[in-house]
Structure formats: C-alpha cells, structure tokens
C-alpha cells in the first residue's frame, strides 16, 4: 500500500496526555538552550540530573554518543548546533513521547558517521527486529533513504551526474563543496522509529531540502541499466507501506518485523 500525503500539521492532539520529556545535555547548558526547552515543554539538565518518563540525550555527535542516546537510558539523540535546538523537528519529540526512538543530526555528521549501522543496530537491539534476510532488506531501504536525504535532499546534489566517470567526478566535487557549506551542512537529517503493534515498525527519514514529487518519482520508469534513480521503487517493493510527507521531505517506511 503506497500513499502520498499532504504536509502534516505540527500540531498534535490535545486529547492525548503529554508525557514528561527530558533533554539530557552532555555539556554546558546555555541560557538560549534553556529557553528553547522551556518553550517546548522539555525538562533540561545533565544526564544524571534530568528526570522524566522519556529522555533524549543531546550534545556533540559521535558514534559513541549517538549509540548511548538510543541505549537503555535514553530514547534518542539530538545533535546540538550553535543555536541549540533550532531546526530540530517537532516530530522527534513526539516520537519519543509516543514510545519510539529519534535521532536528529546535522548533514555533515549524518554523512561522516556510520548512521546506517547505528539505526540498524537500534532496530535489532531496541525494537526486537530479528537478524536475517528481512533485516538485511530493511537495511537496504534505510541506506537508500538516508543517503537520498543527505545527498539529494539537504545537499541538493543532482543524481543524474553519476551516469558516467566524468559525471561521477563532478558529483564528488559538488559533494565536497556542499559538505563544507555552513548552511547546507547544518541542515538536519532526522530518523524516527516507532513500533506499530507487535508486527510492524515505522521508520521516518526526514531532510530539510526542497522536497520532491513522490508520485511522479515512484511512477517514473527507470532504465534497468541506470546507475541512479531506482531507489524509491526498490523501497516500495520491500516496505509493507510507503508514505511521503512534508512535500517529499519525509519518507515513512513501514516494515513487517
């Protein structure tokens, strides 16, 4: 089942009780960050001091810090920027309040760190996804979605460049330039994971790029020999359902466990 959805509202139901959510800051807490947390209704403190039903770890992104954030003591990791939580999607906080896991990284970090491995490990260790062919296929989908969010979403690198060796060299050059662009490299890649009952897991991969026409891309017949452009079709064949939101900036993939 494949759907294209209109951009969702950032307003969540007032009928559902809001669970206390804490932001554990691995470092000094600035006045601006404290004000942002107050506006979002988040408790804030050091990892040892903040007490809430659910907690997000925040700080400098590294393999260790992200894995710690999705471990037993926390329900996600948010990379802090120079402006604190500015740019972090509200979906991350709602996901954690709903019993899921959330990761919010700058594009540069999502590209440089083993983000896919971290997410796949979280699905296995925290969501009970058994290793095997199903997990491998889900990993392929997530790798495609995350790389698309980084390269074609936030960095806006054209996919068609990789059709030959000359184009691939140009592709690499543009990637290098845009990873060093302070605006583009600080756009967010966010991964939200939610259990859907006992049988399904939903994974939402979001970027802050220009978006794309989901239906057009999905229905486009791509040459089987092409070196790019086949990822969305592959994902749609593996997923139980595939949903585009936010004008194509969020891809929601639901997988059978």
TrEMBL record:
UniProt KW ATP-binding keyword: yes
Q: Which residues constitute the signal peptide according to the record?
A: none
Q: Which UniProt keywords apply?
A: ATP-binding, Nucleotide-binding
Question: Membrane-crossing residues?
Answer: none
Carries keyword Methyltransferase?
A: no
Q: Which GO terms describe its molecular function?
A: ATP binding
- Domain called Histidine kinase/HSP90-like ATPase: residue spans: 120-255
Q: Which InterPro entries match?
A: HATPase_C_sf, HATPase_dom
CDD domains the record matches: HATPase_RsbW-like
Q: What is this protein called?
A: ATP-binding protein
